[in-house]
Amino acid sequence: MRKTFALAVAAVALTGCGLVPNTAGTGGQEKQTGAATAQTENPPPAGTPDPAESAAPAEQRSAPPQSDKIIATREARVEGSDGATKVRVEITGLLRQGKTATLNWTVTGLSGSFNLHNGMGTGVWDFSVGGVSLIDPVNAKRYRVARNGTDDKAQCVCSKTQGEFLNEDESASLYAVFAAPPADVTTINVEMPQVGVFTDVPIS
């Protein structure tokens, strides 16, 4: 069974909300320093809560279309209160468009019941995939999911997952929008809570 999660977001002006050129650390971009650089080389355990940075994306009304081409795949075994579950994640696209980059992927349950409810969020009450991030190890930067504002009510420009648990053979198509890495960055690492890190994912 295939599920698609999308978030309708009103258009947000790029100026004044995080995508102003030459502003350090804006647009969901987080400069890694010292210990943080080491963290990039050895990412923290998947699922570690970490507040997402604010960013102003271009208008995103629905999940971008999924490609049939799989550019990265990973299987993970997750221990939970109800026992172990197994899941397969397939990244089907990382597309750069102007100042934003959109990540598409599919999650398929292989055994047990995989927690998509808040398992890819930034914390217990984050029912989205807002905990996913892009890591540029060359420039020592982490890019967090873009948000549609800068206050505490801002929501991520990404799939919402409240109440969703994937049983065996159930799939979900997901997406998240980020500030685009520099043009000379052609591959990047993708970190997903519960799943781990995909290395050298190509940006198209």
Model description:
- The structure is a single chain.
- This protein has 204 residues and is mainly β.
- It has a single domain (2-202), classed as Immunoglobulin-like (Sandwich), CATH 2.60.40.1240.
- 3% of the residues lie in helices and 37% in strands.
- It has one helix and twelve strands; from the N terminus they run ββαββββββββββ.
- The chain has one helix at 35-41; strands at residues 2-4, 29-31, 72-80, 83-97, 100-111, 114-115, 133-136, 141-144, 165-166, 171-179, 187-192, 196-202.
- Strands 1-10-5-4-3 form a five-stranded mixed sheet, with no helix packed on it. Strands 2-8-7-11-12 form a five-stranded antiparallel sheet, with helices on one face.
- A hairpin with a 2-residue loop joins strand 4 and strand 5 (100-111).
- The chain is globular and about 45 Å long.
- Residues 5-27 and 31-62 have low confidence and may be disordered.
Secondary-structure map:
Elements: E1 2-4, E2 29-31, H1 35-41, E3 72-80, E4 83-97, E5 100-111, E6 114-115, E7 133-136, E8 141-144, E9 165-166, E10 171-179, E11 187-192, E12 196-202
Parallel strand pairs: 1-10
Antiparallel strand pairs: 2-8, 3-4, 4-5, 5-10, 6-9, 7-8, 7-11, 11-12
